[in-house]
Fold these 3 entries.
Entry 1:
Amino acid sequence: MTKQKATNVTWHDGEISREDRYSILHQRGATIWFTGLSGSGKSTIAVALEQALYKIGKLSYRLDGDNVRLGINKNLGFSEEDRKENIRRIGEVAKLFGDAGVISLSSFISPYKDDRDEVRELHEKAGLNFIEVFVDCSLAEAEKRDPKGLYKKARAGEIKNFTGIDDPYQAPVNPEIHLKTDVMTVEEEVKIILDHLHTNGLILQPQFTRADEITQSAAL
Amino acid sequence: MTKQKATNVTWHDGEISREDRYSILHQRGATIWFTGLSGSGKSTIAVALEQALYKIGKLSYRLDGDNVRLGINKNLGFSEEDRKENIRRIGEVAKLFGDAGVISLSSFISPYKDDRDEVRELHEKAGLNFIEVFVDCSLAEAEKRDPKGLYKKARAGEIKNFTGIDDPYQAPVNPEIHLKTDVMTVEEEVKIILDHLHTNGLILQPQFTRADEITQSAAL
C-alpha cells in the first residue's frame, strides 16, 4: 500500500507556491550575501560552499561579477548611482532565486551598509531568508594576497575609488555570520555556514535526492 | 554493496558545473518564453504548465509582470527604450535561471521580434535552451476575453500604445511551439509543451524525486 508520508507536500489546483517549490528541492530558498574587501575570500568560500551543498544534493547558484556584470548589469558603469543600481539589481535577482527555492551565493564587495540593508529589506518584506556573511579580512592580509593585482594598481593610482584604499568599506554591524579569514580555514568557514543553514531549517530532509543516491537506497 | 548507477553525476574539486546542477534536479534548465497579445492566454498556460511540472517533481518558476515590474524592473517605464530594457533584463534573468537548472516560464507580451531574438541569442550563445511559444489568439477573441479590461481602455484612448490596437504585435516567424488558443484547450496546450520538453531531453529520469515519492518507493 502506498502511504502519504510527507506532510509538507500539498496538492491543489491553484498556483504553485513557494512552499511547493521548497518541497521539491528539500530546501528553503535563501540568499547568502558575502560582503568584504577585494581579496578577502568571498569567492573562495562561495565555491567551497557550493561544493559542500552539492555533496548533500542541495541546489545553490553563485552570482558574481562574471555572470552579472557581463549580463543583467552590463549597461552599468562605476558611478555612485550605477554601483548602487548594480547591488539593487543583484538583490532583486537573488530575491527571485530565493522565491524559486534556490540558495544563491552572492559574492560582491558591496561596501556600503545602506545598499546591503536595502537588499535585506527587500528579502524580509517578501518573507525570504537573507543571510549576510561578513568576510572579514584585514586590509594588510587582503593586500598581501592581491589575487587580481588590483591593490597594486590602486596604490599606483591606476584604479580610482578602490574599496579599502581610496573608498570606504563599511563593515556590517550585525551580520548573521562573521568569518575571520585571517585566521580561519575555508573548511571551518564552510562548516559555520552549513551549521547556520541546518540550525535555521533551510536544509530539509531527505538530504540525498541525487539520482545516484536514490538508486543506491533502492538497491540496498 | 553500493553501486554507482548514475553516470551523469561527476564528482570533482573544481567549481560545480551547470551539468552538476541539472543532475541534482533531474532536469535541464530552460527558458520557456510565452509571447502573445494581452489576453491571449500566456499566464493561464504558464500556471497550468507549472502545475503539470510540479506533479512530476520538476522545478519551474514563473516570471511575469507581478514579480518583475515590481522588482528588478521597477525603475523602468513604458518608453520604447524602457520597454526594450525591460525585455532584455527579463532575458538575462531567465538565462541565469536556466544556468541554475530551473525551467523558467516568462509571460510577457514581448511584441517586437528584435527584442525576442536578442533574448534567444543570449541563450544560444550560452548554450542554453530557449523555447519560444507563440500564444496565438485572434485580436477579436483576446478583446472579447479582455480579462483586465485593458482593451476597453485602449479603445477609449485611456491607454496609449496598446499592443494590437495602436501598437503592432510582430508574430514569431519560426517559434519552437505554436499554440492556437482560439481553438485549443489549456490541457492540449500543456501537453504539447510537455511533449516538447520530453522529446528534447529537458526532463530527465527519475521523474519523481519529491519527498513523498521517494518515501513511497522505499515503502513498496
Note: The first strand of chain B starts at residue 30 and ends at 35.
Entry 2:
Amino acid sequence: MTSRAGFTLDELAKALGATLEGDPRRVVTGVAPLHSAGPDQVSFLTHARYTDAAKASRAGAFVAGAQAAGLPAPVLRVREPQQALVDLLNLFHPPPTLVPGVHRTAVVAADAQVDATASVGALAVVEAGASLAARVRVGPLVYIGAGVVIGEDCVVGAHAALLAGVRLGRRVLVHPGAVLGADGFGFAFDGAQHRKIPQTGGVIIEDDVEIGANTTIDRATFGDTIVRRGTKIDNLVQIGHNVEIGEHSILVSQVGVSGSSRLGRGVVLAGQVGVADHVTIGDGALVGAQGGVPSDLPAGGKFLGTPARPMLEAKRIMAAETRLPELLRRVRALERALEALTGRPLEGEARGDE
Amino acid sequence: MTSRAGFTLDELAKALGATLEGDPRRVVTGVAPLHSAGPDQVSFLTHARYTDAAKASRAGAFVAGAQAAGLPAPVLRVREPQQALVDLLNLFHPPPTLVPGVHRTAVVAADAQVDATASVGALAVVEAGASLAARVRVGPLVYIGAGVVIGEDCVVGAHAALLAGVRLGRRVLVHPGAVLGADGFGFAFDGAQHRKIPQTGGVIIEDDVEIGANTTIDRATFGDTIVRRGTKIDNLVQIGHNVEIGEHSILVSQVGVSGSSRLGRGVVLAGQVGVADHVTIGDGALVGAQGGVPSDLPAGGKFLGTPARPMLEAKRIMAAETRLPELLRRVRALERALEALTGRPLEGEARGDE
Amino acid sequence: MTSRAGFTLDELAKALGATLEGDPRRVVTGVAPLHSAGPDQVSFLTHARYTDAAKASRAGAFVAGAQAAGLPAPVLRVREPQQALVDLLNLFHPPPTLVPGVHRTAVVAADAQVDATASVGALAVVEAGASLAARVRVGPLVYIGAGVVIGEDCVVGAHAALLAGVRLGRRVLVHPGAVLGADGFGFAFDGAQHRKIPQTGGVIIEDDVEIGANTTIDRATFGDTIVRRGTKIDNLVQIGHNVEIGEHSILVSQVGVSGSSRLGRGVVLAGQVGVADHVTIGDGALVGAQGGVPSDLPAGGKFLGTPARPMLEAKRIMAAETRLPELLRRVRALERALEALTGRPLEGEARGDE
C-alpha cells in the first residue's frame, strides 16, 4: 500500500527506541520477511526458531531481540521485536492521507453532521441525522443509516452498511461489505406461520474494535448488541441480536455467536466456532477451531470440540476415537475368551452382536 | 427505530384484544423487557419463569397471560402473551412511512416497471425489464438485475443484489448484502481443467420469506432454486443451485445447503448446519447446531451431530465419548486380568498395544 | 438468462462434433433436463443411471454417449456427454453481448486505464491507477481500488470490491459481493491491547479462477495471497492472508482457510471445511464436508472429520461411535462376569463407575 521512501538506520533506531549495531547512515526503503528481504530492506527476527533463516537472509538490517547473535547485517536491538515490527510497519506504511470532504457523487442528507475533517467517498449514502466525527473516513459506496453515530478516526470500508441504530466509538475499523444493524432473527410461531418479532434495538461498537469483511452484527430486539473496546472480529463472522462481547476479545473468521450470548473480556474463539444462544463464556476462555459451545464455559479455560470440552480432555477423547474400531475388536475377543473359560454365554442384556 | 409517541392502556387493550386490569387512562410510550422497563413503558411476561423478574420490574404496565398474578402495575391480560408482544411492538414501531418514488440518483432502465407506490433508494440500479409491484421498497445502493420480478410489499435492503432470473413473491424481506441469483457452483473436469457449466436457471422466493444479511442463494442450473412461502433464513446462509426449501422452514445463521437438496415444510436447521447435495429432509425435521447431513432424514425427527443421528442417540454417543479414555483403560485392565487368570495371552488378532 | 432462438440438429451435431441419429432438420430451441424437457428442447444423458428417465422423456432430441440405446427421439452421439452438455449450454446461452464503455454514472479516476473494449457499469467506482484490460466487464456498484490490475476478459459482479493491491489474471470471474484484498487478521498483543499489524501485501488471482458471491480473500501481511489458475471457489468462503492455493483446486461453500496455509494443485475442500494456519495440503488431496484440518495432509489422500483422518479410518470411527453406548454396557458386563469368576474386584486403577 502507501509507503515512505526510506529511512536511515539512525532514524529507525530513534523511532523504535532501539540500540543500533551498525552503520547509522545506511538507508532502508522497506520491510520484508527474512526469506525475501533484499539489501535495501529491513527484516525482523521475532522468534529464535527463525535464527537460521536470519543468518541466511540478504536483508540490509534486522530488528531483533537481545539474544539474537551472528546476524549478517546491522541490527536494531529492541526488547519486544514483534511490537517493534508493528512500529516499523507503521513507519513505512502510514495510513493514506485523509483528504477531507464529501465526494461530489455522495448522497448526504441535509441534516447529517459531517465533521469538516471527515471524508465521505464516492457514491456513499449518508442518511438523515447521521453524525460523522473528526477524521472519520467513509469509503465509496458505503451506506450510513439515519441517526448513525460514528466516532473520531473511524474507517468504514467500501460497501459496508451501518443501519439506523448503530453507534461506533473511536478508531473503529469496519471492513468492506460488513453489515451492522440488520434485524435480529426472531419469530413467534402462531400455529400457522412465523410472525416477525420487530427488532427495535441498536448496535454499540466501542473504541478500537475491528470488524472483518462481510461480517454481520445484528441489532438487538430491545436495547443493544454490544462489542466492547479493543475486540477484533475477522471476516464472515455472525453476531446475533443482544449478544455482548467483552473487551479485547478475538473472533476468528466464520465464527457464529447466537442471540443473547455473553462473552467475557479477552475471550478467543478460533475459526468456525459456534456459540448457542443465551450462553455465557467467562473472561479469557479460549475455544479451538470448529468448537461448538452449547452451554456456559468458565473463565480462563481452553476448550475444544463439539460439545466444547476442556482441551486436554477433548484431545484425549480424539486420540481414543482413533482406537475405537480396535477397541470394538478387543471387547469381542474378551467376550469370546470369557465365554470359552466359563463354558456359557455372557449375560445377555449387554451383549452386542458384530 | 421509528416509534409512536404513546398509547393509553385502554387503547392498547383494544388493539391487543386484552382485558385490562388497572387504570385505562395511564399512558405508556414504549416497550421494554422486565429488567429495563421504566414507569413510562409497558413490559411483558411471556413465560412463568420470569415471574420474579416481573414482580421486581418498574414497568408501568404488563402484557401477561391468564396465570400471572401479583404484578406491581396494571396488567393487559391476553391469551397468547408472545403473540401479543408482536402486536405491541408493531404498534409502537410501525414500518417507516413509505415515500413513493425513484430517488433522483437511482439508475432505472427506461423499460423497468416501477409501480407508482413503490420506492427506489439513492444510487440503486434497476435494469431493463425489471418489475417492482405496489409498495415495494428498494433500498439505497441495491442492484436489481434485468427482468427481476418483485411482488407487492417486498423490502430489499441496502447493497442487496437480485440478479437476472430472480422472482420474489409478496412481502419478502431481503436484508442488506444478500446475493440472490449468483451462478450455482457447477463444473465439468475435462482432464485438464474445470469447465464451467453455464447456470441457466433462476431463483423463486415465495411470499413472506425473510432472507438474512450477506446470505447467498444461487440460481439453478436448469429450472429454479425455490424457497417456499413463510420460510425464514438468517445471515450468511448458503443455498446452492436447484435447492428447494419447503414452507415455514427456519434456517439459522451460517447454514449451508448443497445443490439439489430438498427440505420439507417446517424444517429447522440450527446454526452452522451443513447439508450435502441431493439430500431430502422430511417435513418438520430438526437438525441441531453444527450438524452435518450426508443423506436423507425422515420427517418429524430431531437430529444432531456429524453425521446427523437421532438426537437422543447422538447425545448418548456424546456422553459416552467423554468416557472413552477411561474405557480404553478398563479394557486393558480386563485383558490383563483375564491373562492372569488363564496364564496365557489373549488371541492375538484383536489385541491392542498401549 | 440470454439464449439463442434455436438450432437444427444438424447445426448442433457439427458444433458438438456429434454423430446424429435422426432428422437433421429438426429444430430445438433450448436445453432442459430429462424430466422437464419438451419436444422443442434437447436433453442429455450423462450417466447410465438416468436411462429410464431418458426413455420416459418428452425431449425432442438427446445428447448421449455410445452406450445409450432405445431413446425415443433423435440422438446426438458424443464421446463425453458431460463435456458436450457444457458446449451445448454455451451455444444456447452465450455470454451477454458486451457493450463497451463507461456508464455515465460510474466514477472513474482520470488516470485509470480502461481499455476501449471494456465496460464499466452504472455507479461503479474505479480508483486512480487501476487498469482494466480488453473486454473486462465491471458490473454496477463495483469498487475497484487504486492500482488494481484486471486482466483480459475478467467479469466482476455487482457490489464486488477489489481493494488496492489486487491483481487478476485473465478470464477471472468474481461474483457479487466478494471482497478481495481486505486486511488480513493479524495483531500483536502488547499486554494491554491487540495492536494491528499493518497488512502491506496484495492478492494475486491467476487466470480462469472463479470466486463466489460474498467470498473474502485477504491481502497478505507481506508479499501476496495467491490463488493459482483454474481454481474454483464457491460462495462465502474465507481465504486468510498469505494463503497460497494451487492450480485447479475446488473450494466449496463456507470453507475457511487460515493464514499462511498452502494448498497444492487439484485439492478439493468440501463444504464448511476449515484449515488451520500454516498447514500444507498436498496435491490432489480431498477433505470431506465439515472436516477440520489442524496439520499437514499428504498428497492424493481422502480425508474426513475433525481432526481430518484418512476417509476409510474416519468412516470406521464414525460407525464405531454409533456402538459406543453399547460398548460401555458390554465392558461393564465383562467386568462383572470376571469379578464373579474370580470372587474379587478388578484392580482399582482402571475401574469406571456407571
Note: Chain A touches chain C through 69 residues (CB under 8 Å).
Entry 3:
Amino acid sequence: MDAYTALEAQFGRMSKLDDALEILHWDMAAMMPSGGAFGRGETMATLRVLRHELATDARLADLLSEAGGADLGDWQQANLREMRRLHAHATAVPGRLVEALSRAGSACEMTWRASRKANDFATLEPKLTEVMGLVREVAAAKAEALGVEPYEAMLDQHEPGGKTARIDALFDDLAANLPGLIERVLDHQAGQPPVAATGGPFPIEAQRALGVKLMQTLGFEFDHGRLDVSHHPFCGGSADDVRITTRYDEADFTKALMGVIHETGHALYERGRPKAWRYQPVGLARGMSVHESQSLLMEMQACRSREFLDYVAPLLRDAFAGDGPAWAVDNLHRLYTQVRRGLIRVDADEVTYPAHVVLRYRLERALLAGDLDVRDLPGAWREGMVALVGIEPSDDKDGCMQDIHWMDGTVGYFPTYTLGAMTAAQLFEAATEAVPEVLPSIAKGEFGPLLGWLRANVHSWGSYYSTDELLTRATGRPLDASVFRAHLERRYLGA
Amino acid sequence: MDAYTALEAQFGRMSKLDDALEILHWDMAAMMPSGGAFGRGETMATLRVLRHELATDARLADLLSEAGGADLGDWQQANLREMRRLHAHATAVPGRLVEALSRAGSACEMTWRASRKANDFATLEPKLTEVMGLVREVAAAKAEALGVEPYEAMLDQHEPGGKTARIDALFDDLAANLPGLIERVLDHQAGQPPVAATGGPFPIEAQRALGVKLMQTLGFEFDHGRLDVSHHPFCGGSADDVRITTRYDEADFTKALMGVIHETGHALYERGRPKAWRYQPVGLARGMSVHESQSLLMEMQACRSREFLDYVAPLLRDAFAGDGPAWAVDNLHRLYTQVRRGLIRVDADEVTYPAHVVLRYRLERALLAGDLDVRDLPGAWREGMVALVGIEPSDDKDGCMQDIHWMDGTVGYFPTYTLGAMTAAQLFEAATEAVPEVLPSIAKGEFGPLLGWLRANVHSWGSYYSTDELLTRATGRPLDASVFRAHLERRYLGA
C-alpha cells in the first residue's frame, strides 16, 4: 500500500468514528433518558480518545511527508492538503495542554451555568481567566505549527484559512455602517402599520407537520434524515443520514418554523457533499462560514423573501386555522422582518445580529492577545453594546455571560456567524442572477432551481477549494461587504 | 500501574465501545432512515475492528498471566476469570478464519432471505454447507483454547460453562415427556369453553400507553430507558440506559403487550447489574439462559399467572373499551394460555416451544459433529417435528429455513431459550416460596417483592458466580427439569 492509500485508510477510520460520535451526540440531545448521561459521557470520551490516538498516530507524519507527487489526481492533492492541515491541528498541542484545557473548560462551564443564573461574574472570573490563559498557550502552539497568527490558528479550526486582516476590514465596514442602519430601519418600521398578532396557541403537531412539509419543499429527503426535538436545535448525523432538531413553542410558531428551515439549509449542505469523498477530509464541508451561509441562505435570503411568504402564507393559514388581517402576506412579512435592539444574540434579528457578532469578535481578539483582562470584560461589553447595538445591558447575565462559547475555550467561532450571513447574501444574489427562475420558483414552493445551483456551486465541492476560491468561482469575487449591506437596505428600508 | 489495573482499563475501554455499538444498533433498528444503512454498516464495522484490536492486543496475554494473587478481592478474582475466558474466545480463532466466516455468513444470510421466500432449499444448501464447515473450524479452535468439546466452545459464547451432558439430560427428559404432555393439554383444552374473541381493532396509541404503564408496574425506570418500535423486538442499550422495542398489531393487542413484558424482564436484569462493576466483564449478565430466564419469568411465570390477569383485566377493558364475556378474567386467562401445535418456533406457546428448541439443539449438534449433512437437514427436520411437536411441515420455508440463526454461523444459542424457560420456573418457584407476598402483590399490580428478590439473588451478582452456582444459591439446587414440568402440568392440566 502506498503512503497516500494508507493515509486514506487511516483518515477513513477517523471519519467513521466521527459518524459514530455524531449519532451518539444526536441521541444524547434528542433521545437519551436523563439517567444515561454519565454513561454517555464515558462512551463518548472513549471514542474521542481512540480518535485522538488515530489522529496522532506516529506513522502519520511519515506518511504525510512521503505522500504526494504527480501520480495523484487533483482531488487527491486537495485531500492531502486537508490531511496535512488536520494533522497539524491534532499534533500541534502537547497532550498535557489538551487535557488541561479540557478540564479547565469543563469546570468553567459548570461554574458558568450557576453563576450566569446568579448574575455573578466575580465567581466566574478566575475560571474564565484560567481558560483564556490555556487558550493562549494552545493558540501559540497551533500558530507555530500552522505558520499563522495565534487568533488565526484558533479561527482555522472552524474557518480554514481565515485571516484577521480580511475579517477586520469586513467587520470595520459593518461597525461603521450598522449603528446608523439600525437607527434608520427602526425609524422606517415605526412609520409602518404595527404588526398584528397572529394569536395562538399553535399546536405542536401542526407546527411539526408544516415543518416537515417545508423541509420536503426545500429538498430534504426523509429517507436520508430525520426531524426531532432537542433543547438546542442543531444539525448532526452524516451526509446520508442527516439529523436535524428543533424545539416548539405553542405560543409562537415563527421560531420553530424558521429554525427548521435554518437547520434544513445546513442539512442540504451535508447531504450534498461529494459522494466519492464521503470519508475523506476533502469531502467535508468547507468550514463554518460556508456552513452558516447555507442555513442563512435558506432562512434569511430565500424564506424571508416576499416570494416565499406569498407561497407559505396560505399554508400557515391552513395549518393554524389562521383568519383575519394578521394572516395577510403583508403582515406576515412584517412579522418575519421585525427589527428590535435587544440584549441577546440568539434572539436578534437579521439587522442587529451582526453588531452582536462584531462585538464578540473584537473582544475575543483582545482577550487572546492579552489586550483585555477577563476582569475588564463586563465593562468592555457594556461599552461595545452601546456603541454597536445601541442598548446597554442591565446586568452581566444578559451581557458578557450570555454565551457558552468562551467558557470551554471556543475562540475563533463567533465571526463565522456573520461571515456566513454575508456569504449567504452574496451566494443568493449570484444564484438569482445566474438562474432567473430561482425567485419565481420559490413563490411556487419550488426550490429545485436554487438547490441545483447550490449543489453545483457549493455543496458538491466539499473542501476541494478554499473558501475564497469557492466564493470567487460561484460569485465572481471574494467576500464583499457591500452585497450584504445592500441586501439589508433593500429589505429593511425598501431601498 | 499493576497488571490487574491495566487489564481493568483495557476491558473498560472495550465495554464502552460495546455501549457505543449498542446505541448504534438500537438507532439502526428503531430510528435510522433507510438511506443511512450503508454508512451505518461502515461505522459499526469500524468500531468492531477497533474493539477487536483492543481484545487481541498483544500485551493482554502477558497482563493476564501476570495478574492475580492474594491481594485481589473476590470480585477482582472473578473479574480476572471472566477476562481470561473472553480473551480465550477473542484470540482462539485466526483472523483469516474470523473474516472467512463473517463473509460466508453474510452471503448465506443474503441468500437465505431470498430462498426462504421462494421455499428453495437447494439454492441455500451450498451456502449453508460452507458456513457450517467454517463453524466447525471455529469450534475446533475455540475448543482447543478453552479445553472443552467443540459444541461446548460454541455454547460458551452464549452460555458460559454450558455442558452438553447436562443439556442432553435435561432435554432428553423434555423430549420424553413433552409429546405426551402436549397431547393431554390439547385434550384438556378441547374440553373447556372455546376462547371468545376480543374483537378489535386496538389502537396502537392505547397499546403503547398500556405497555408503558405495565413497564412501570414491573419496575422499569423511564429515566433510565425507553420503549420504541422495531421490526424485531429486542432489549439493548446499557445498564443505565436500557432500550427496549416492540411492534404493534392493531388486530391483536396480546402480542405487543406480552412482548413488552418479556423485554422488560430483560431490561430489569440489565438495569440491576452490579453498579460497582459497570464496565468490567464480571459486571455483565451471566449468560443467555439466565437472561432469557428473566424475560420469561416476567412474561410466562408472573404475567400469565391468574393473579396478574386479575390485576390486568380491568386495565385491558379500560384501554380498549372492552365489554362482554370475552373480557372476563377467565376468558383472558384462556386466551393467554392457549396451546396449539404449530410449525413456527417464534409463534409457539409455552408448552410446545421447548419441543421446537430440542429439535434445533439436536440438529445443530449433529451438524457441527458432521453426523448430519446440510443436504439431509430438511428430512431430519420433518422427522423431528413429527416426533417432538406432532406436526409435519408442508415445506422447508416453514421448516428448516424459518430461523436466521444458523445462516450467519450462530450455533450454540438455541438451547438457551429453553434452559431459560426452565430456569425461570425454578427461580419463580423459589421466589414465591421465599417471599410469600410475591403472588398476592402481583394480583395488586405490585412487583416490588418479586423484583427485590430477583435483584438480591440474580441481577446484582452479574457474572460473579457460574450459572450453576447462581441457581443453586438462589433455589437450593442446579437446574432441575421437574420444576418446569410441574409448572406446565399445573397451569395447563390444572394438576
Note: The CA atoms of residues 467 and 493 of chain A lie 31 Å apart.
